[in-house]
Amino acid sequence: MRYWLMKSEPTVFSWDDLKQAPNQTTCWEGVRNYQARNFMRDQMALGDRVLFYHSNAKPPAIMGVAEVVKTAYPDSFAWEPHSKYFDPKSSPEHPIWVMVDIRYCHDIDPPITLPQLRQIAGLENMILLRKGSRLSVQPVTPEEWAVIMEVTHSQGSC
DNA sequence: GCCAACGTTGGC
DNA sequence: GCCAACGTTGGC
């Protein structure tokens, strides 16, 4: 099992939105970066754990844990002309972008804010914390995951 | 609102 | 293939 971090702007899709979604599950459409896509397409497996991160939030924070319940499949939003994720280069015959489905697992309560993350020993090399890092889907090492789970005392089964 | 960092586009 | 211009991300 691998570990990931996925960013979402809460004004677009929030942690609460996930909790209130049918089956507490959502498709993760709209990834339009090749590196992020390749992680989803090539490496994400059923049961992988995901840190759900609020970007462009006050404060930015890790809100909870989700799990991958469906592996990569074509992102059909890319060929919806009225979607903000429309990409004319993609088509049903030749999809470019993929999405996965994730399901709510448990809260991280309280959320771990970005300033707090920067102070936690063992997370110095987290991709999220690197200067200029913008990857919206990124791997988290088992060691980083363990540190974060240690810091939050929230637990829950998926 | 600002702006640094990054990714993409397109002319050459 | 180079690289300048541009658009986006996302913290502050």
Automatic annotation (TrEMBL):
EVE domain location: 2-150
TM spans (from-to): none
Family matches, as CDD domains: EVE (cd21133)
Xref: InterPro entries: 5hmC_binding, EVE_domain, PUA-like_sf, THYN1-like_EVE
Entries under Pfam families matching the protein: EVE
Protein name in UniProt: EVE domain-containing protein
Organism, as annotated: Candidatus Synechococcus calcipolaris G9
